[in-house]
Amino acid sequence: MASSFTTRKVALGLEGPRRVMVLNSIDAISHLSFPLKLKTLISIVCVKGELTVSVDLVEHTLKASNIMVVRPGHTLTGYNASSDFNGFLIMAPLSTLNHSLLSFSRLMSCFMYFRERPIVEITTEELEIQQHLHSAIVKKQATTHTPYYDSILDALYQSVLYETLSIYTARMDKDKSVKGNLRRKEDVFYKFLLLVEENFQKERSVNYYAERLDITPKHLSAVAKDTSGHTAGEWIDSYVILEAKLLLHNSELTIQQISSQLNFANQSFFGKYFKHHTGESPRAYRQALLDEREETI
Q1: Cα(203)–Cα(193) distance, rounded to whole angstroms?
Q2: What pLDDT is attached to residue 121?
Q3: Which pLDDT score is estimated for 128?
């Protein structure tokens, strides 16, 4: 995993930093173990070169003048930077965003809109603004604490977040396919995804999530379908299957343990569920992973 950056290591842990952090280097997270379930929102700006980031087992490649945002709840499964890569990233815990960003729900709706295509190409002017704000934060962080130090940093962080929100909003608003009533549906859909991310390991029933949202299961599935192209049940299944695949990557866990962790009645039921959605058994999927690893050694 190559990178042209040199910077201090940051002990982030699975929970992420307690406040927003601006990092000059991908190397700052190189000591972490992957896969890594995100508890923070990550914004990556590529100035030069390329960076390939694997999110939920899908690879996304950033090139010069690209920005990528990954929401909390997703899983980083790896990354690789070209030797000439130059860029920076911002990590923001969800609690900080909820506190500091008045348009947080709007921000999330934008990121959901780009869920399948999280990388956005930015203009020269947009890139320069991101760089200037990043530079201002880095310089301020390097100074000794002065009056209003935290307030100044918070204002700079919010400026970066609002600039990023502006970029995503502008792209989304240009899409003529977005219906006028999509904003309300996005809000319901976003709340549904948050519930799924918190409860999918124990609850796989659409009725459960509809009841939590105080709407009918039929309406929930219709909203999910209109907003994302997939039903509520399909979204729940996608979270369960992705988590199952990530757990199967960990050879220390038995299939029975994975079955229990995902709240299946027994290993047999888990196996049938997994095969129905992937076309192969958990054991076959794990063996294919092991065979692939042996071939790369």
Answers
A1: 13
A2: 94
A3: 95
Distance from C-alpha of 114 to C-alpha of 119, rounded to nearest angstrom:
8
The reported pLDDT for the residue numbered 3 is 38
Output the CA torsion sign for 60, 53, 141, 39: positive
* More reliable by pLDDT, 16 or 147: 147
Give whole-number Cα distances, 80 to 59, 60, 106, in Å.
10, 10, 31
Rounded to the nearest 5 degrees, what angle is found at the Cα of 193, between the Cα atoms of 244 and 159? Answer: 115
Token pair of 88 as six digits: 């920076």
Distance between CA atoms of 138 and 28, rounded to whole angstroms? 15
52: alpha, beta or left? (left if phi > 0; alpha if psi -120 to 50): beta
Contacts of 4 (CB under 8 A, 6+ apart): 49, 81, 83, 84, 85, 86
pTM, two decimal places: 0.63
Q: Residue 8: is it exposed, middle or buried by C-beta count within 10 angstroms (0-12/13-18/19+)? A: exposed
> Residue 202 burial (CB < 10 Å; 0-12/13-18/19+)?
exposed
